[in-house]
Amino acid sequence: MTIRVLLADDQTLVREAFALLVESAPGMEVVGQAATGREAVELTRARRADLVVMDIRMPDLDGIEATRRIAADDDLAGVKVLILTTYDTDENIVEALRAGASGFLVKDTRPADLLDAIRTVAAGDALLSPGPTARLIERFLRNPAPPVAVAGPECLSCREREVLTLVARGLNNTEIAEALGLSPLTAKTHVSRMMGKLGARDRAQLVIVAYESGLVAPGSR
């Protein structure tokens, strides 16, 4: 199936460059471009995008609030948001993940990595750049903030807690399977069940839950 991508960035050159790249890839199409967060929300609804590549710093409505509105809209259930960030300086990335983003992308990423990121996040299979993502979450979850409105890990089985710990440390399904002596399909099933039990949209929120509940401590490995 074709992945319908919406690009949201206040820099025209950035949007156009990303648009050319996405349109050149098989199985993807750009269904719209937004220069503000408010426009991103409106176009996501109007164009029925599958995934939004969202800048954080935009006029009118920033990327975090735009992400929050998309995630809260029942009519947009299933729409994924991939955040654009400068990584080292953008301390808002965790708030974006809390708001419902499924992962993040560094703005100076390689073209092939952008396309891989879109495929990965659209599939909901794994959190993008799990190692850096986990380190970033560890860093900024040290600061008090409202927790994600999902259930806690006390509703999980012992095995599911083991899997959640590994998800929070940045492992994908294949790596989790190897670590616990499971098949990749079983690992994926555990992750899916945890999402259902915790009310989490995706793996990004599983990571947040693991840290905010204390199941995984910042800095642990």
SSE inventory with pairings:
Elements: E1 3-8, H1 12-24, E2 28-34, H2 37-47, E3 51-55, H3 63-72, E4 80-85, H4 93-99, E5 103-106, H5 111-123, H6 130-140, H7 158-168, H8 173-180, H9 184-198, H10 203-212
Parallel strand pairs: 1-2, 1-3, 3-4, 4-5
Helix pairs in contact: 2-3, 3-4, 7-9, 7-10, 8-9
Can you put this structure into words, describing what you see?
Residues 149-214 form the HTH luxR-type domain. Keywords: DNA-binding, Phosphoprotein, Transcription, Transcription regulation. This is Response regulator transcription factor. InterPro entries: CheY-like_superfamily, NreC/VraR/RcsB-like_REC, Sig_transdc_resp-reg_C-effctor, Sig_transdc_resp-reg_receiver, Tscrpt_reg_LuxR_C, WalR-like. It holds the Pfam family Response_reg. Helices cover 49% and strands 13% of the residues. It is globular, with a radius of gyration of 17 Å. The chain contains ten helices and five strands. Helix 7 packs across helix 9 and helix 8 (173-180) crosses helix 9 (184-198). The chain has two domains: 3-124, 3-Layer(aba) Sandwich (Rossmann fold); 153-212, Orthogonal Bundle (Arc Repressor Mutant, subunit A). A five-stranded parallel beta sheet has the order 2-1-3-4-5, sandwiched between helices. By secondary structure, it is α/β, with parallel strands linked by helices. It has helices spanning 12-24, 37-47, 63-72, 93-99, 111-123, 130-140, 158-168, 173-180, 184-198, 203-212, and strands at 3-8, 28-34, 51-55, 80-85, 103-106.
